[in-house]
Amino acid sequence: MNPPPLRALLNPHLADLEEYAPIEPFEVLSARLGIPAERIVKLDANENPYGPVPAVAEALARHPHFHIYPDPRQSMLRDALGAFIGVPAAHILPGQGADELIDSLCRLFLAPGDAVINAPPTFGMYGFDARLAGAEVLDVPRRDDFTPDIEAIAAAAETRRAKLLFLASPNNPSGGWLDDDALDRLLALPLVAVLDEAYVEFADYPSRVPRVLDHDNLVVLRTFSKAAGIAGLRLGYGIFPEWLMRELWKFKQPYNVNVAASVAGIASLRHADRIAAVVATLKAERSRLYEMLASLPGIEAVPGSQANFILCRVVRRDARDLKLSLERRGILVRHYDKPGLDNCIRISVGRPEHTDALIGALRAEDGP
Ligand SMILES: *Cc1c(COP(=O)(O)O)cnc(C)c1O
Q1: How many whole angstroms from 7 Cα to the centroid of ligand 1?
Q2: Based on the domain organization, do 251 and 334 belong to the same domain?
Q3: Nearest C-alpha to atom 7 of ligand 1 is from which residue?
Q4: Any domain includes 1
Q5: What is the pLDDT of residues 23-52, one digit of tens each?
Q6: Are 33 and 102 in the same domain?
């Protein structure tokens, strides 16, 4: 069958993309399962079950200027971020989630035929956005313990002249931290290293944000979606070297960050101490969840997560089948069926009652 002529007008490298697997909206799922939304235990997307600090809703309710376009330079938000992370605002660019910044970096650097390095299993957006930009994605698989294979990355960088390297630390979905020696080695490569710290607030180690100030080839990405609990409002930010900031200012959409996201971000930063307390609660719950998972015969939990989730290998039964059984009980977890993640599920850290419901369900699933 001939393709319709209008379709032939599409950009050829975009026309062959596969559709991004859609996620069933929460309300639709709730209706399908016949379980009220407030009773669903949602542990599938690493959202913060405590939501934003109360000051966010108050600031949004009070804000008088929703009829006015946002500040294209986001000066108030960037100043607040600079004070929070301890680098000059001149290095900080907010985005509509960290996801927008991943896409911006891909479009800024990559033309069809260029290469990027990805270290799967990891966050899916690096490969997705790189392919959108027409680039070739050089997948350098992680080792069995999910640490990146630094020598193989270095070899790929040098032989294939990759322009960008994406690495998450803590990594999603394995939860591991990228150690200093590995980072030093990567920063010596002739490419721009994008270090995604979406979960750094949950780690026992300090952020690498300060290192951007003395490395021209390091970008660090952060977000308000996880620790700050405003995933639905879409707010992230990047810390970039000065030369790259100059390019990004020319390139970015003037109104990429909406006023509500900006107001919510500033309110969150004013109450960073409260967010830190919620993070401490979630970290304590992560330990409890891990101990309970480790006691179950049907689950092999990956130890040492530095993020707000735990990756688990399911033994003795099919992980997809387990995910669907949990779903019928109103408990949502993320299932994977990808290389390096065979028969795995990822469980976000929730409230104590979520852990109890999950563990009770897993015990029942495991029973006669
Ligand atoms: C959730 C997540 C993000 C996305 O952050 P947004 O700010 O919500 O776009 C980025 N990177 C990783 C590794 C994530 O898991």
Answers
A1: 32
A2: no
A3: 97
A4: no
A5: 788 888 899 999 999 999 999 999 999 999
A6: no
CA-to-CA distance for 79 and 320, rounded, in angstroms? 45
Tell me the whole-structure pTM to 2 decimals.
Answer: 0.96
Q: How far is CA 89 from the centre of its chain?
A: 23
Q: How far is the C-alpha of 60 from the C-alpha of 62, rounded, in Å?
A: 5
Question: Residue 202: inside a domain, yes or no?
Answer: yes
| Stretch among 27-31, 110-114, 137-141 having the lowest mean pLDDT | 27-31
The verdict on 68 and 206 lying in the same domain is yes
Residue 243, domain extent: 54-271
Please give the average per-residue pLDDT across 293-299, as a whole number.
96
- Residue with CA at minimum distance from ligand 1 atom 2: 198
- Radius of gyration of the CA atoms of the chain, in A: 21
Q: Which atom of ligand 1 is nearest to the CA of 99?
A: 9
Among residues 231, 252, 271, which one ends one of the domains? 271
The span from the CA of 190 to the CA of 334, in Å, is 36
* Half-sphere exposure for 214 (CA within 13 Å, toward CB): 4
The alpha carbon of 126 and the centre of ligand 1 are apart by a number of angstroms equal to 10
Final residue in a domain of this structure, among 271, 303, 322: 271
Q: In angstroms, what is the span from residue 317 Cα to ligand 1's centroid?
A: 30
Residues with CB under 6 A from ligand 1: 46, 97-99, 123, 168, 172, 196, 198, 223, 225, 231, 236
Tens of pLDDT, residue by residue over 340-354, are 999 999 999 999 999
> Does 256 have pLDDT greater than 60?
yes
Supply 212's token pair.
């951007």
Residues in the chain: 368
CATH code of the domain containing 162: 3.40.640.10
* Distance in angstroms (rounded) separating the CA atoms of residues 286 and 282: 6
Q: Looking at the structure, do residues 35 and 61 belong to the same domain, yes or no?
A: no
| Closest ligand 1 atom number to CA of residue 225 | 8
